[in-house]
Amino acid sequence: MIPAAALAELSSLLGDRLSTTRSVCDQHGRDESPYPAMPPDAVAFADSTDEVARIVQVCARHRVPVIPYGAGSSIEGHLLAIRGGLSLDLSRMTRIIAIDADDLTATVEAGVTREALNDALRHSGLFFPIDPGANASLGGMSATRASGTNAVRYGTMRENVLALTVVTAAGKVIHTGTRARKSSAGYDLTRAFVGSEGTLGVMTEITVRLHPQPMAVSAAVATFDSVADAVNTVIRTIQYGIPVARVEFMDIQAVRAVNAYSKLSLREAPTLLFEFHGSEAGVAEQAETVQAIAHEFGGTDFEWASRQEDRSRLWAARHKAYFASLQLQPGSTCVTTDVCVPISRLAECVTATCADIDASGILATVLGHVGDGNFHVLLLVDPADPQSRERAEAVNARIVRRALDMDGTCTGEHGVGLHKMDFMRAEHGEDALDMMRALKRAFDPLNLMNPGKIVTLD
Amino acid sequence: MIPAAALAELSSLLGDRLSTTRSVCDQHGRDESPYPAMPPDAVAFADSTDEVARIVQVCARHRVPVIPYGAGSSIEGHLLAIRGGLSLDLSRMTRIIAIDADDLTATVEAGVTREALNDALRHSGLFFPIDPGANASLGGMSATRASGTNAVRYGTMRENVLALTVVTAAGKVIHTGTRARKSSAGYDLTRAFVGSEGTLGVMTEITVRLHPQPMAVSAAVATFDSVADAVNTVIRTIQYGIPVARVEFMDIQAVRAVNAYSKLSLREAPTLLFEFHGSEAGVAEQAETVQAIAHEFGGTDFEWASRQEDRSRLWAARHKAYFASLQLQPGSTCVTTDVCVPISRLAECVTATCADIDASGILATVLGHVGDGNFHVLLLVDPADPQSRERAEAVNARIVRRALDMDGTCTGEHGVGLHKMDFMRAEHGEDALDMMRALKRAFDPLNLMNPGKIVTLD
Ligand SMILES: Cc1cc2nc3c(=O)[nH]c(=O)nc-3n(C[C@H](O)[C@H](O)[C@H](O)COP(=O)(O)OP(=O)(O)OC[C@H]3O[C@@H](n4cnc5c(N)ncnc54)[C@H](O)[C@@H]3O)c2cc1C
Ligand SMILES: Cc1cc2nc3c(=O)[nH]c(=O)nc-3n(C[C@H](O)[C@H](O)[C@H](O)COP(=O)(O)OP(=O)(O)OC[C@H]3O[C@@H](n4cnc5c(N)ncnc54)[C@H](O)[C@@H]3O)c2cc1C
């Protein structure tokens, strides 16, 4: 419950941009995960950094939890208002503050989505590579340390965020980092906030690195007899240092889903989608080398998508794979896994996982940003059958255990939210978790910023 | 002063690996900066993570400051024992724990130097790119967030450290990160310690990313009529997205110094050194494009060093430029600047800086990792003449001011130490500095880890 005095202050600050309407609160108390909604008590739609600071100050004074909200596309229960409070929606903060093409940087408000940023960059010769399957906000992507299909070449939000404007838990406005490409000027506050999932403060402006649009692009699809052959092709590609821009894995079930949903006719087999960026000659050379590697592992049907439309269709289909998977069993929700392992262990990890899924009898698709050693299993769950969710969670727990045993991580890009909290001790150990708690207490002494996520304090 | 009881405990733990000898303490109380030594009260030579933990526990119990010591090559006063205490020398911890060639990672003890690591990698087909001019330790390099000539292509320690073993200020051993290439599993403890200059804990093991040795390498030297022409060539190269592996600037004075010291006969003019990595065809293509850009800016004498010996000689000379500069005025020490600016401002920044140096009458060389927007001025100082140091510091302060006005940083790679502390408020603002102080207090509540560096707490 938000105290009436706090609501009154917020309301006089925001007018009709403060809402306590049931449907608005419900929509802000859930994400794309199967968690049932836990709505906040109110939603504030902020317009500026200054306004965010005032809102946070009011909430701090009245001890009201604040949950920053970007595009709502997260999938680990990040947005659930488990202690009530205020959802602070940044989706109206959509100003593109600066595009410094000469410096390959852009500064945007937190609510700008990755698609909006790339639209704004269309005629600049530059692009912003990070592309989660959803049209997420730059604030949300920074907060979850997101990545996607291009990370193998261009890095994740960790590497691509240069500087931030942050409203701290005390409601102060700070700037972290500069537009210089590197710095050794003290503690890395930027990377303390990147990946902090709204638990340390609110990012209101984000400066990111941009990249020159490649002179040439080509894409290809290859299919394999086994999961191991496909994954081993990727491992070899990475070990050779080929600067592949994208390399995505789909298992048979995922190919089926994508074919049906996006009206493609890919061969139903373990599949890799490649994209190469560079000069004409460079792209041709990369593609040739990778094709040779794929052949070594029995890869067939190496098919080129050299026309821009074919490539767009292919990647659009890949980006819709999540919704395509859900349609394999209409009405279902899904438990998503997100482990990431050292690349040498990837074939073993994916193969064991596929066997595990088969044995479980759960309908699932496997999709992977495999160049980074990261893959997702989408385990379909019948929302009406609690046991189906439990069975899926059991598979997820085994997948995580397997990844940790291989010196990997429980989440490569989606974040902890609520769903991965149980694995934090196993991954980091109690003493490292204590350091995380110390950091949380130092930055948010009242435990009001998205409380109860990442680590608990009690 | 270290209490006698503490010394006794340390001595029974370490035997003759604890030293209070004057010369040993003096040597550990200084670095390569012009600061006069401020020796610690004792020096401990640790052999293992476990031993580091015990040493830190003893020091915490007795409230003894601990200053981690790697190779002693830092240049901002990092190692001065301004509050006495114990220098914790890690240079004996030189085990290469694992080289996982398949995963492109290595795990080493903190005392392993970059040259030792690359020696160990010689036959693996891999290398570790980060190369400060000195043969620094991986622990020290992590602690200063170091980079060097290759960072423009391969990133800095920020991007290349995957995981750490850290002894916390309380003497606990924690592991941060995993060998997975990316992770969203909570706060980024790894990057909290990278760049923390010994003020948050002691890194005892470091897991770094390795990179495939390029199939082909070529290097070239080009000279220009003006500083601006040279720098603009670099700016254009970066803006075109050419993945140049190294691009280093030397002003006329630096060329003179290098010629004299390393017996080269480079033309005395503003100079760029390039290195290209890739396939045979890729390297040729990059070199051609860059040569065309250089020509546009009047670059001449584009000279190729295609033989490995010539390249090695060239880069060895560049790496010795610091000592070569000192020899321009034998007996001198030097004040080093280390600003880094957005690349579009680089020509303006370097040109204004050169004019400033000329006007000051100080003998100085300008050297730069210009692909990142980072450059150093080595201002020669007569140790017998305090005013000469003051004049140099005044130039440094103006250079920093200029860089900050351009949205740059006071230190691109050397770190804060003592020497850059005065600029921290101007760069970050008081409220961001307060967040750094909060982080320091959270991780080191007794303020015993290299106290008085980066930020002061009182
Ligand atoms: C179909 C689909 C595909 C996906 N594919 C990928 C993928 O390939 N890679 C990937 O990484 N993710 C993927 N995701 C997950 C999701 O898109 C990312 O987590 C994304 O970064 C969330 O951004 P958002 O704007 O939707 O944030 P939200 O969901 O609104 O919020 C996410 C978290 O960030 C916090 N937050 C939001 N904005 C701010 C801010 N300004 N300041 C501080 N904290 C803030 C919130 O409190 C919350 O904890 C996918 C999701 C879907 C539904
Ligand atoms: C000639 C010359 C050229 C240089 N060129 C470059 C360059 O191109 N790029 C660049 O980045 N730097 C350069 N430097 C600076 C220096 O080499 C780097 O700062 C280097 O990273 C220091 O490493 P070190 O092992 O010598 O650390 P030290 O000097 O021993 O220590 C540096 C700091 O790190 C802390 N520290 C050391 N080890 C640990 C540990 N294990 N855990 C926690 N804290 C620790 C110390 O307390 C201290 O604060 C140069 C220096 C010289 C003398």
Automatic annotation (TrEMBL), chains A, B:
SUPFAM superfamilies: FAD-binding/transporter-associated domain-like (SSF56176), FAD-linked oxidases, C-terminal domain (SSF55103). The keyword Zinc does not apply. One of its GO terms (biological process) is lactate catabolic process. It comes from the Bacteria. Keywords: FAD, Flavoprotein, Oxidoreductase, Transit peptide. Its EC number is 1.1.2.4. The keyword Oxidoreductase applies. Its cofactor is FAD. Pfam families: FAD-oxidase_C, FAD_binding_4. Gene3D superfamilies: 3.30.465.10, 3.30.70.2740, Vanillyl-alcohol Oxidase, Chain A, domain 4. Residues 36-213 form the FAD-binding PCMH-type domain. GO terms for molecular function: D-lactate dehydrogenase (cytochrome) activity; D-lactate dehydrogenase (NAD+) activity; FAD binding. Belongs to the FAD-binding oxidoreductase/transferase type 4 family. This is D-lactate dehydrogenase (cytochrome). It comes from Microvirgula aerodenitrificans.
